[in-house]
Amino acid sequence: MTSMNGRPADGNGASPDVARDDPSPSAPRHDTVAAVVGQWQAVHPDLDTGPMEIIGRINRCAALLQQAEDAPLRRAGLSRPEFDLLGALRRTGHELTPSELTRETFSSGAAVTKRLKQLTERGLVERRGDTRDRRVAHVRLTDTGRELVDAILPEQLAYETTVLAGLDTPGQGELATLLGELLVQLEGRLGVLRV
Amino acid sequence: MTSMNGRPADGNGASPDVARDDPSPSAPRHDTVAAVVGQWQAVHPDLDTGPMEIIGRINRCAALLQQAEDAPLRRAGLSRPEFDLLGALRRTGHELTPSELTRETFSSGAAVTKRLKQLTERGLVERRGDTRDRRVAHVRLTDTGRELVDAILPEQLAYETTVLAGLDTPGQGELATLLGELLVQLEGRLGVLRV
DNA sequence: CGCAACTAATTCACGAGTAAAACACCTGCT
DNA sequence: AGCAGGTGTTTTACTCGTGAATTAGTTGCG
After folding, report:
1. Contacts of B84 in chain A (CB under 8 A)
2. What are phi and psi of A93, to 5 degrees?
3. What's the Rg (C-alpha) of chain A?
4. What is the reported pTM?
5. B87 contact A CB<8A
6. β-pairing, A125-129 with A137-141?
7. Exposed, middle or buried by CB within 10 Å (0-12, 13-18, 19+), for B59?
8. Which end is more exposed in chain B, N or C (fewer Cβ atoms within 10 Å of the end residue's Cβ)?
9. Cβ(B32)–Cβ(B7) under 8 Å?
10. A168-186: per-residue pLDDT in tens?
11. Hey, which bits of B41-189 come out as E strands?
């Protein structure tokens, strides 16, 4: 798996905001994606802009959330990809090889190598060579690494909770379910969907 | 951008080591985020992992969609940020200055400058200086630029439609609505939410 | 054994994005 | 007029991620 992230911040998503004349200043309170979709429909009234309303919003949400989430991590001096790597080690509960880490974190081998180098220098992870196969390495959290993850995660979740607080609880449940359904489809399908 | 990442194929077991191969071939079919959340809950049963189910899925969906969407654009030799820029010019229907483009596309000024340079060299956009204020530039699509956008957009939407096809129509509507509500909150709130 | 084919991990060269500095120009105040 | 301070855009220096090559090691097979 490669790419994605990207866009760490990647990259980001669809597009936003309206320009001059927003016709309805009152209305049901549009988000920026709705404004963009409105503009497109004015220009191409014949197109079905339905997919934009989902994909555009997912991208935009991801971009905004990403930025927001950075905060608690940054205080710990970690980037999100770094935290993902540490988190993978923590949640699986055992050592992982670099190639397993590329699968767990969906990033390229080169990226994992670099991150491991940094995290090792910072004393958050350790490596040990495999005794049988000297090509493979095994990576594990150091005590400080584990403590760091365990300290950050609750903050992270608490922060995310407040970020999502604008949506009521049933709404959150529905959203999680729908996204889960979509995700199952995407994960199962996209590999096969050869353009 | 990828918040919580998932495992390719792995029961959500908390147990270290071991890989029970997907035990229930039927079942509600877990997505990778569900697996990751399951792992976390096994390690920290006390934490409320609710936010992960939303934020993790949004990030993962964004990553997968991004990659998927690349396809139609790549055929036209455009990256998504480039298309976003062209799209902003097309949908607003008039010239935009570079700073307006940074707002429309949510990217930095430096990035816009670079993209404009490339797109100008490719003959997709033109610039003209403002007559009153010689600091500002006005950017517009060339005829080829507009034709390109108009040619790509329908393909793009058609492709996105098939990508989303796994979700039934009412589900798509609900999803769009919920994401819209979330987005309104995020856009209104995040600027103010000083960590 | 010895060599081809494969796999794990790393290195390399490069492209793209960013923040901050630089630059160019405008505006308001005295 | 003249200049302090503000704004629009570009440049600079850097980081980070990627794909492709590279290194190192293993395995299968004649």
Report:
1. 14-15
2. 80, 5
3. 21
4. 0.83
5. yes
6. antiparallel
7. buried
8. C
9. yes
10. 999 999 999 999 999 998 8
11. 125-129, 137-141
